[in-house]
Design brief:
The protein has 91 residues and is mainly alpha-helical. It contains five helices and no strands. Helix 2 packs across helix 3 and helix 2 runs parallel beside helix 4. Bound molecules: zinc ion.
Length: 91
């Protein structure tokens, strides 16, 4: 997955659907610093990606808050996380 990211020229050309996979990784804290910078550059240049990023981020924040209150089991967290990956990634 990381090799895949490096194929993208900085900011300029990108596929919006693929950017969403970066976003998911980013929100999970799984991007390297360099990839993070590239993603943030795309988000500042592409309003479509930025919009999707915000939706994704808010959804994740919402889930996190929900989990904190209810104290869900880790297995359920993982299940929902996998679903997010499916929805925003290679559906
Ligand atoms: Zn885009």
């Amino acid at each position: 997955m990381v090799e895949h990211l490096q194929k993208h020229p900085e900011g300029m050309k990108h596929k919006c659907e693929e950017t969403m996979r970066w976003v998911v990784l980013y929100l999970d804290g799984e991007l390297s610093n360099a990839d993070e910078q590239r993603l943030l550059k795309i988000l500042t240049e592409c309003s479509s990606c930025f919009e999707k990023y915000n939706i994704e981020k808010e959804f994740k924040t919402f889930l996190t808050k929900k989990f904190e209150k209810k104290g869900c089991a880790d297995s359920l967290k993982k299940e929902i996380k996998d679903q997010i990956h499916r929805l925003s990634g290679n559906a």
